[in-house]
């Protein structure tokens, strides 16, 4: 499972310096080793989830690009119209793994940040209330649910 997020980060970052690649690979190996050693790796990767994850990552990449353009336009605008908000967004009925994917997806999307994860919601900081409203509409949440192995 570790190569998938590492490759996703690599594709989004565009940093291909040999030193950074080496340090990144070493850090992935160390983190995986620490997780296994600590016993936190109790949620194994299922085949259905692994098969659906690349499609989700592709969709998320598009969302990251779109929201990055929106945030850049807002920040560079002479009349910066940003009103940061902190509100919960629903995240009920997700497995622990999917809850982590959802919270990290929110954080990866420019302009939003997951602050706290609860059983039925995620507390989100956003540069504008419309981003929270978009999360509440549930497009990202429904895509995360589709990556889950259970039907």
Topology of this structure?
Elements: H1 3-13, H2 18-38, H3 47-76, E1 85-90, H4 96-108, E2 112-117, E3 121-126, H5 129-137, H6 139-147
Antiparallel strand pairs: 1-3, 2-3
Pfam families: MNHE
Keywords: Cell membrane, Membrane, Transmembrane, Transmembrane helix
Main location: membrane
What's the gist of this structure?
With 151 residues, the protein is mainly α.
What key attributes describe this structure?
151 residues, mainly alpha, 2 domains, 62% helix, globular, transmembrane, Cation transporter, cell membrane, Cation_antiport_E, membrane
Structural commentary:
Belongs to the CPA3 antiporters (TC 2.A.63) subunit E family. InterPro entries: Cation_antiport_E. Keywords: Cell membrane, Membrane, Transmembrane, Transmembrane helix. A hairpin with a 3-residue loop joins strand 2 (112-117) and strand 3. This protein has a 3-stranded antiparallel β-sheet, covered by helices on one side. The protein is built from 6 helices and 3 strands; from the N terminus they run H-H-H-E-H-E-E-H-H. Helix content is 62%, strand content 12%. It has 151 residues and is mainly alpha-helical. Helix 3 packs antiparallel against helix 6 (139-147) and helix 4 (96-108) packs across helix 6 (139-147).
């Amino acid at each position: 499972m570790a190569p998938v997020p590492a490759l996703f980060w690599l594709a989004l970052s565009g940093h291909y310096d040999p030193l950074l690649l080496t340090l990144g690979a070493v850090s992935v190996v160390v983190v995986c080793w620490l997780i296994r050693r600590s016993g936190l790796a109790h949620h194994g990767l299922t085949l259905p989830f692994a098969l659906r994850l690349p499609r989700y990552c592709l969709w998320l990449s598009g969302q990251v690009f779109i929201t990055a353009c929106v945030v850049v336009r807002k920040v560079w605008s002479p009349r910066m119209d940003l009103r940061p908000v902190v509100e919960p967004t629903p995240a009920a009925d997700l497995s622990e793994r999917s809850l982590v994917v959802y919270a990290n997806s929110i954080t990866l999307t420019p302009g939003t940040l997951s602050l706290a994860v609860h059983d039925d919601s995620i507390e989100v900081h956003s540069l504008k209330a419309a981003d929270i409203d978009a999360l509440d509409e549930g497009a990202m949440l429904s895509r995360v649910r589709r990556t889950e192995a259970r039907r």
